[in-house]
Amino acid sequence: AVGGQDRFYVKELLDDPRDAVARMDQALQITGLQHTTFCPGPDQVFSNSRKMIVPLKNWAREHGTLFHIHSAEEPKTTAWFKEAIEPGMTEVEFLEAIGVLDSETVLAHQVNCFGRDVEILARHQTRIVHNPLANTILGSGMPPVIDMLNAGIMVAISTDGSGSADNQNIIAAARLAAQYQKAKYQDATLLKSEKLLEMITSVPAKILRQNQGELKTGMRVDFVLLSLDKPNMVPTRADNVIENIIWSADGSEIDTVVTRGKLLKLSGRVLPFSDGHTPENIMGAVQKLSELFAEYRKTAPELKGTGAHQ
Predict the structure, then answer these.
(1) Which structural domain range is residue 130 located in?
(2) How large is the angle between the packed helices 17-28 and 50-63, nearest 10 degrees?
(3) Number of structural domains, the chain?
(4) Which of 10, 20, 55, 306 is the most buried (most CB within 10 A)?
């Protein structure tokens, strides 16, 4: 998703709608990315006016791509939006009013739902990406996932970025998503392990319109093999393997990774990349960037938060 925002941030960093659309056109001209697709991804609903959102959604429709945006993530900003930015309207109602909601629109978070929000999302078949790790770490709350699923809304589970989640373990995200809902409703039958596995595999594939997420003829050759002889996975049987993956795995069990038929990890070791770089090269570069960033922060101007946290 190619991002941007045109309000409520540092002036020098604000975007222009025409530039945002031009950037999408430029993305299509990039060569050598046969496995990469682009879609408009303006930052958040509150940080983008209709002058930004509508042209980008129109671009997505014209080019047959998804449209991605963060919505109703944080309670204080969500309330501020309804009170001061678009008085009387929730972010979902605003998106519906400007004609953005449909089955090709993907809303990240959608934590704070009000009134008719779930019904509106279901009617337009809008997709939701739930990020429980980030939502709890940042104290944002949790979306009404059970209500969404009962309304027929397609909900995927994700991790969000490292800047807000501090953890890209998708199994941990699935586990937390279920634990919260089970505790909230005091119902241990909610979000069974089979459903959670779908929400981190086949459901995201459907939302992203990728030919993957299932092991069957005609699907892309993507799969992960887990070692089941780790202490935390014992005993594992055919009848409890999914439960063990969701409730006991911590990620260290991932032994083999294959994507598009290409072996990326074998016997627990990440293999060298196609461009010749090795995991060790990457780790060294990451450490160097981290040190440079630490030095930059010592003299960098302070950037305050966005939205109601400005």
Answers:
(1) 11-213
(2) 20
(3) 1
(4) 20
